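ARCHIVE CARD
CATEGORY: sequence design from structure
SOURCE FIELD: tokenized fold
FIELD CONTENT:
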């Protein structure tokens, strides 16, 4: 009788496990698709009415996996997410009190993508790490192809300007160009660069060329320069730690230069770029942001619901603190937010030694791009920007360490057995 019961339970368990397996993979695709549509701003070509549905769906997936992770006694990802969430809510409150306006929780959703580390962690420890990273590459590469079509359509006039106006920029002398989701283009480019270096096949060259074309069409000069430098380092076969130190060195030097204006009030670090439209506007933003940081060094200015709410305090010109890198993070998120930002920036360029090179190098190089770029933009914590890539690096990194621990010390944990049985064993990424 006991044997019959155990056999029945086993047969009953198989379909349930397969259903769970399928649900995980479905939600992987849903979350990554939502991220592409939202963070690339493509949804704006249809209408801003899509934003609540996109963010609400992503928030629901994150909430589901928060409970899923807690049930499996994995506290650190949820704890990190809770600290980050508390910080953002506090900074929203700081501005609400300053402007004497009602607290608006929906402002939090623009920072929500950092919390995606929780589902990324859950998918990693539940045996879906390889599938997750494969889908990241698929969606990133597909986005680069779509970006090329949109950019060429905009340049040739084939696509009506009214359709693309919501995702184009014509602020400076580089002309009108379609907004590029930098971190997604970066991970697609570095993946195909690694594939081409390993196997010089026509397919790898084709996708590498397409990703390079997408990056070039963005006309983002600093981004392209960083991508070029990291590509050179990778092709001359430097060690992973050299790439990390290179990007961190750039971040430290640029941040120190920008922060030097806090010591000498007569010095504006962006004054030397005043001949450029973008540089001159940053010089103006710097003066305003520096003044507010001196006024409130601990809590910063806070996070406003919209730039129009900040104008009574900052002047009639729109101020975009994200143009100023770590200084902008201090302005928005206060001193603790600045520390958290630097921690995230530092971790983004840390090699995940438990991944095979196929994914390890693209994640390291893309994370290093965000670290180096962090000197002039808090890309690692912004959406649209790079918050999802930060979450991916953190989530996969944490999950991979858990897998390694379970491999060395097998336990009676059912989830650990599922992980090992699916072949998700750690691979050593070169140091």
């Amino acid at each position: 009788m006991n044997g019959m019961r155990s056999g029945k339970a086993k047969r009953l368990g198989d379909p349930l496990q397969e259903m769970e397996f399928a649900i995980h993979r479905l939600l992987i695709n849903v979350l990554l698709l939502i991220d592409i549509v939202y963070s690339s701003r493509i949804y704006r070509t249809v209408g801003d009415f899509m934003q609540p549905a996109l963010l609400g769906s992503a928030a629901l997936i994150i909430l589901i996996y928060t409970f899923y992770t807690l049930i499996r006694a994995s506290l650190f990802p949820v704890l990190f997410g809770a600290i980050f969430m508390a910080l953002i809510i506090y900074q929203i409150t700081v501005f609400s009190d300053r402007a004497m306006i009602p607290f608006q929780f929906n402002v939090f959703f623009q920072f929500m993508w950092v919390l995606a580390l929780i589902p990324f962690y859950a998918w990693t420890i539940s045996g879906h790490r390889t599938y997750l990273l494969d889908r990241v590459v698929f969606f990133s590469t597909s986005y680069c192809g779509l970006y090329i079509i949109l950019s060429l359509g905009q340049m040739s006039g084939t696509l009506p300007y009214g359709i693309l106006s919501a995702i184009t920029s014509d602020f400076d002398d580089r002309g009108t160009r379609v907004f590029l989701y930098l971190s997604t283009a970066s991970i697609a480019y570095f993946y195909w660069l690694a594939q081409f270096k390993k196997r010089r096949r026509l397919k790898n060259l084709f996708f590498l060329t397409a990703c390079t074309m997408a990056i070039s069409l963005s006309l983002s000069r600093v981004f392209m320069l960083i991508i070029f430098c990291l590509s050179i380092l990778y092709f001359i076969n430097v060690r992973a730690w050299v790439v990390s130190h290179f990007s961190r060195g750039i971040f430290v030097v640029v941040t120190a230069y920008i922060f030097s204006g806090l010591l000498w009030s007569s010095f504006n670090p962006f004054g030397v770029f005043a001949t450029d439209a973008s540089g001159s506007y940053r010089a103006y933003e710097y003066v305003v942001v520096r003044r507010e940081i001196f006024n409130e060094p601990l809590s910063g200015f806070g996070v406003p619901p919209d730039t129009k709410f900040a104008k009574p305090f900052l002047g009639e010109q729109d101020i975009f603190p994200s143009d100023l890198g770590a200084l902008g993070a201090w302005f928005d998120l206060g001193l603790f937010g600045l520390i958290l930002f630097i921690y995230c920036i530092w971790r983004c360029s840390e090699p995940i030694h438990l991944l095979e090179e196929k994914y390890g190098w693209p994640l390291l190089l893309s994370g290093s791009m965000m670290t180096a770029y962090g000197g002039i933009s808090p890309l690692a914590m912004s959406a649209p920007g790079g918050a999802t890539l930060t979450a991916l690096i953190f989530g996969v990194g944490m999950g991979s360490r858990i897998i390694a621990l379970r491999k060395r010390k097998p336990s009676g944990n059912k989830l650990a057995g599922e992980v090992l049985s699916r072949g998700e064993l750690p691979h050593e990424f070169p140091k």
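CARD ANNOTATION: The longest strand covers residues 168-169. The chain has one domain: 2-421.
SHELF: design records, drawer C
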